[in-house]
Amino acid sequence: MATVTLTHTEALSRFGYALSDTTRARILLALREAPACPSDLAEGLGVSRQVVSNQLACLRGCGLVQSVKEGRRTWYRLADAHLAPALGELLGLVLAVDPQCCGPECTCQ
Predict the structure, then answer these.
(1) Does residue 109 form part of some domain?
(2) Which structural domain range is residue 77 located in?
(3) Hey, what's the torsion of the CAs at 50, 48, 56, 89, to 10 degrees?
(4) Which of 9, 61, 62, 94 allows an S-S link to 14, with CB 3.0 to 4.6 Å?
């Protein structure tokens, strides 16, 4: 079994934080398919460019996406090749989720 370090747990926490927001999760899933620019992400997700820009800044800060300037456009892609298959594996999980848990009226916290 591999040794788990503080670095591992911090990286996993950042990944969990990124996935804890629906818009960030949707952005990661969109970038899993192909790189995209913020305007295309905003249109595809049905949110404002400002929302996408804010969430991309968070994802960059978490080290999950990279930006690449190309002329006047900036393209975003997943920062590591391991992220796409990891997201695919997470999508493949079947979870028994209590719809009352972790919602606005959650008592588990």
Answers:
(1) no
(2) 6-88
(3) 170
(4) 62
